[in-house]
Amino acid sequence: MVVFRWGMALLLRPGLMSMFVPAVETIDPVTGAIGRCPGGVSQSMVTNSVAAERFILHYLCGLKILGTPGAGPIGQVGLSSENLDYFLRMLADNFRFNQPLIQMIENVAGGNMRRALEFTTQFIGSGHLDTEKIITIQKFGNSGYTIPQHEFLRSLLHGDGVYYDPKEAPLPNLFQVSQPVAAEHFVIPLLLDFLDRKVNIHSKGGYVERQAISSYLQGLGFTLDGIAAALQYCSRHRLIEGPHMDTSIDQSEQCRPTTVGIYSMKRLPCLFAYVDPVIVDTPILDQDVALKIRDEFSLEGRLDRATAFREYLDRSWERSNLGSAGWLWPSVSQALADDIALVRKRSFKSN
Predict the structure, then answer these.
(1) Can you tell me the distance from the alpha carbon of 236 to that of 222, in angstroms, rounded to the nearest whole number?
(2) With 50 as the cut, is the pLDDT of residue 168 above it?
(3) Which position has the higher pLDDT, 226 or 45?
(4) Whole-angstrom Cα distance, residue 146 to residue 137?
(5) Backbone dihedral region of 281: left (phi > 0), alpha (psi from -120 to 50 degrees) or beta?
(6) How far apart are CA 7 and CA 17, in angstroms?
(7) Greater model confidence, 156 or 323
(8) What distance in Å separates the CA atoms of residue 308 and residue 303, rounded to the nearest whole number?
(9) Which residue has the higher pLDDT, 6 or 94?
(10) Contact, 309 vs 283, CB < 8 A?
(11) Contact call for residues 76 and 131 (beta carbons, < 8 A)
(12) Are 187 and 217 in contact (CB under 8 A)?
């Protein structure tokens, strides 16, 4: 009871409840536009303080932090009450002020509070989380610990495992293929980009006729089977949705992109933290390159592997004659190369 009361006192401290209602940039599911959402989250998110308090209490109890004196299952080490205080303060600060992180969580969760809390719980319980480092910086750093996007993204993509598993991870592999054709690596981003551009032109609830999608992608050289597989994959991973929840995407004549789909298409392929884990799930259609893509556990090895993968996709794009498409891999490739270089530079400085 002592720990429970202490936890309640922490929850009710002034300002802590507001950590779930910051001003945050979101990607609109219909227009695809990035803008500031009143109250900080999409309309489906909880915004009043009473509901937020209940969610947070349920959240902490779910982590079993409040029921065990002296320790809690956060990251790789147990936490004393003092360290738990520092850790929760760190979470509160990040959920109030860390705009890139909040934007990522909001868009990947698709505006669903329960899913956002599940992602946060997964992050806190991740075996990849260096809790000791976080608490040390929170205690002694000048401005506390800022959760970097790549750290949160890693917890989502890996879970507690070593490898990315698309069946378990909440984020898809945008480079997956249904047929052994180089252009297939790009069909999902191209599909999502087409929907994004269409809903900006035609309102109608943001829905686009499936026939229009097929015509566009067939014009780029994709087969009907490949297009159907891409639509099914996107639907399964919450990247697109039809007008009726109880109707499968195969039976729906219309669909539209979700915030998850737009955010995934516009943000994830540019990030080393995303590309690094999905490499192992991506079929490499060039045998010479496939022989070079192997398990890498050092950061330097993973950076080299990501560079080889990026160059492989460069060549795949060139062979696919997709230069007239709306979504252009060369621009994404350059952004990814810049991010890889930035990670390499930071790694060099820290050594």
Answers:
(1) 20
(2) yes
(3) 226
(4) 9
(5) alpha
(6) 13
(7) 156
(8) 9
(9) 94
(10) no
(11) yes
(12) yes
